[in-house]
Design brief:
Layout: E1 8-9, H1 15-19, E2 23-29, H2 34-49, E3 55-60, H3 65-70, E4 78-83, E5 86-92, H4 97-108
Parallel strand pairs: 1-3, 2-3
Antiparallel strand pairs: 2-4, 4-5
């Protein structure tokens, strides 16, 4: 079993299959982005608090342009919360942990 505190790195094929079967916070970013790297630390804390309820995944927009285009990603970091394939919320930028947690808990309850 994968470590629930580490992100699932998504790409094609497999992207649609994973997001269609779970609740997942999907982060679009790039390794060179300082904001994305800072956000990763926050997301590890969020994953720990939400373990068992929400997975988290990453899409490197440099390596996966087709997924970024399909999801209309214009800025990074950019996060989508999916539930069973449906996008239920989008976070643009790097929200603070408290805001992120409050919104996610509200959406999944």
């Amino acid at each position: 079993m994968a470590d629930a505190l580490k992100p699932i790195h998504l790409s094609y094929p497999g992207f649609d299959k994973i997001i269609s079967k779970t609740t997942i916070l999907l982060v679009f970013g790039a390794d060179w982005s300082r904001s994305c790297n800072v956000q990763d630390n926050i997301l590890e804390e969020v994953a720990k608090e939400l373990e068992g309820n929400v997975l988290w995944g990453k899409v490197n927009v440099v390596d996966n342009l087709s997924i970024a285009d399909e999801c209309d990603i214009l800025n990074i970091p950019n996060m989508f919360l999916f539930r069973n394939g449906d996008k239920i919320h989008q976070f643009v930028g790097a929200p603070p942990k408290t805001s992120l947690m409050t919104k996610i808990k509200t959406l999944i309850s």
